[in-house]
């Protein structure tokens, strides 16, 4: 049974799901709404400190049950394989294809640029092999954020204006491994750059999904009803994303 310490702003527990131990961090803080997320390092639960002890405990139990069911049902989603990049390989994004060119250099830093239909990256030749792909992932991620941020922002504002879903604070692109997107309590829309490797109908669905959270901060029947109104074929996109998660890795 998990402990609940009302005088502690953060507690850390361990929870076993599918014979695997996950770290469970519980935060009690000043926030407008409570939420749960599954990250690379474990499960994060954030509770509004203004809730009564009973309300916090009930919310905690619901979040833990959701995390267990989600991991048991979609455990593979949280085990993203490492990407091995190859010189001259073709990366297929939702709107175009880019050829990756990797060059060795005697410089100490990694650098790169997107030039027309190519991603050109220079990487120090003395970097150990196990670190090579990690550095490649980071530089390619940064280049994709620079290349696609304005395009994704344009899409987000297009759908938000079309469906009048709420006020947006910021738009961010990140290399998130455990979700396709999120909507924060501050109305920040976060999109994973992994989504760029999905077809456009899936990209549009995730954007609409997160925008619908501006109206409904949960996954209630009202939320899914709104999603269905804005994106009638959303189940097709969900199925594609679930089936092709392991292919969308940067």
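Sequence proposed for the structure above (250 residues):
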């Amino acid at each position: 049974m998990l402990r609940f310490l009302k005088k502690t702003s953060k507690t850390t527990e361990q929870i076993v799901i599918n014979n695997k131990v996950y770290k469970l961090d519980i935060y009690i803080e000043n926030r407008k709404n409570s939420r749960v997320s599954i990250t690379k390092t474990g499960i994060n639960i954030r509770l509004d400190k203004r809730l009564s002890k009973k309300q916090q405990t009930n919310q905690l139990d619901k979040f833990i049950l959701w995390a267990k069911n989600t991991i048991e049902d979609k455990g593979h989603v949280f085990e993203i394989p490492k990407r091995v990049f190859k010189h001259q390989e073709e990366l297929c994004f939702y709107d175009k294809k880019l050829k990756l060119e990797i060059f060795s250099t005697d410089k100490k830093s990694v650098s790169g640029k997107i030039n027309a239909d190519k991603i050109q990256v220079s990487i120090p030749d003395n970097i150990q092999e196990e670190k090579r792909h990690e550095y490649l992932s980071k530089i390619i991620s940064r280049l994709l954020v620079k290349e696609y941020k304005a395009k994704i922002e344009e899409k987000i504002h297009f759908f938000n204006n079309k469906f009048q879903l709420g006020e947006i604070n910021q738009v961010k692109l990140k290399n998130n491994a455990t979700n396709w997107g999120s909507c924060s309590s501050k109305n920040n829309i976060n999109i994973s750059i992994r989504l760029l490797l999905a077809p456009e109908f899936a990209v549009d669905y995730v954007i609409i999904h997160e925008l619908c959270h501006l109206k409904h901060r949960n996954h209630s029947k009202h939320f899914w009803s709104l999603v269905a109104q804005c994106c009638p074929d959303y189940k097709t996109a969900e199925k594609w994303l679930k089936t092709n998660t392991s292919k969308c890795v940067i």
